[in-house]
Amino acid sequence: GVPPCINSTAQTNWLNRGDVRKALHIPATLPPWDICSDAVGEEYHVLYSTVKDVYLKLLSLGLRALVYNGDTDMACNFLGDQWFVEDLGIKETSKYKIWIYDDQVSGFYEQFGNITFLTVKGAGHMVPQWAPGPALQMFQTFLTNGSY
Amino acid sequence: QYAPDEVTDLPGMTFKPNYRQWSGYLKAGQGKFLHYWFVTSQHDPMKDPVVLWLNGGPGCSSLDGFLSENGPFHVNNDGATLYENVFSWNKYANMLYLESPAGVGYSYSDDQKYETDDDKVAADNYQALQSFFVKFPNFTRNEFFIFGESYGGIYVPTLSLRVATGQAKINFKGFSVGNGLSSFALNDESLIYFGYYHGLFGEDLWRDLNNNCCNKEGCNFYNSSSDSCKTQVNIAFNIVYQSGLNEYSLYLDCEGRRGFSKAYEKSMSHLFRNYRKTLHTNQFSGPRSSSVSLS
Question: Is A56 on the interface with B (CB under 8 A)?
Fold first, then answer.
């Protein structure tokens, strides 16, 4: 299965080449690669309708968290994730404000203790693909616990 | 490092990488083997963090993350040659891509049974992670983070909890989710507002949604018991998903519209599950015909 509106032909063709499979140590007995698995998707059982409790446990352990959203996505839209983070009930420690990449506003963010909610302006579902520069800066900032 | 898995040469790679990479298998549950692809940092591999990347679905491959999103190289349109991604996340981190669960991509199970659930996926991924650090013991001291996208909104926190509370010695520091599914209710509920305030719904539909799904206490677009509300929400969801818009990026063209598999819709059935059953079967024909007239 291929996700709607996504063109994965090139990578599918490349990954299915015999010499690529050999280089990646893929057994010859395995079926061709595809971006999504019908067998898994059709037999998958969803157990969690929300991961709120899981987040609260993780944050209580002192872990750092970042929830980011390309703000033109409609499969998992930014507003739903913003509401999710706000609904965790953690006191806001940083107001909603802009962040900058390459001298331009790249989105907005707000912080609640050790969790940050951040938007990537103009990007869709696959943020690193459609906003690669801002995504890399965001990634590095999170890893180093820096300021957005 | 696990020498047998090292990738020394890749077809279509015309440049010399300044990082090392390994591809092979990590043992998960009984008879399950998850394919991984590990690339070291271009900066300082022994000091930089190790980051696990998981795509969503459920049932979609993290190699899409590697080859289209944040990996060090992507595939040209010819499907044969590769080009460098200057914004690769391995500029600052050692990146581990895991095809999960078994049955996805090149991951497999000996018995070829691929029925699974959220908790089993988390358990298998945790086991695979331990298998990774057995193969790559030099990286156990590096800081470790888990990143994911889409249905990774479920995969990432559930795996993170196992890593944070489990026995394995992993220097776990944090996690991140991009465009993730965190709450079915909030995802559905917010989409109606997103659609209206991006100009996807007209005033008539917005009025009908409000009249049929809202009361003094608020609106319920997620699981209303009102049939008339369900009808209006269906119309709204049809506009978002069936009118020809790119649901993953509102302002981008929809590529390969005719080619996508309906099986993928089944794999994405976590989205709007209260409405999916009727999404294609109701008689609404507005978006397609109206898009013609609008154009």
Answer: no
